[in-house]
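S.,

Sequence below, as promised.
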Amino acid sequence: MAATVAYDEVEVGTELPAQSFPVTRATLVQYAGASGDFNPIHWNEKFAREVGLPDVIAHGMFTMASAARVVTDWVGDPGAVVDYGVRFIKPVVVPNDDEGALIEVTAKVAVKMDDNQVRVDLVAMSAGQKVLGMSRAVVRLA
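The prediction came back faster than expected:
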């Protein structure tokens, strides 16, 4: 698969389509099974509160991967992502109800680089708070 977005058609400030990702306790159990991360802060409310958290929280890597989907869906090829990194600044708190939590992600092209690459800056929010900092992806375009 190759990137479907052409470098020449992208400008600094180009906004990627925003996406929202619902997260429920069931989502966290599924992710724990897939990732092997069964830390009780991700499924046991009593334990999470005992260690000082407000409630069960989403896995950091789940939050990071959700944000990355905005980039991979836009570019059309996950392999086009050359580099990706974030700082975890706030947890995504997932209450035990039918709604759970929502991770809302926006992104835009911040820098055009050599070799058909762009840097995309992402903003991930949950419950009105920024949950990822310095969230950036370098992507090789067509």
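The domain at 7-22+58-140 is CATH 3.10.129.10 (Thiol Ester Dehydrase; Chain A).

Coffee later?
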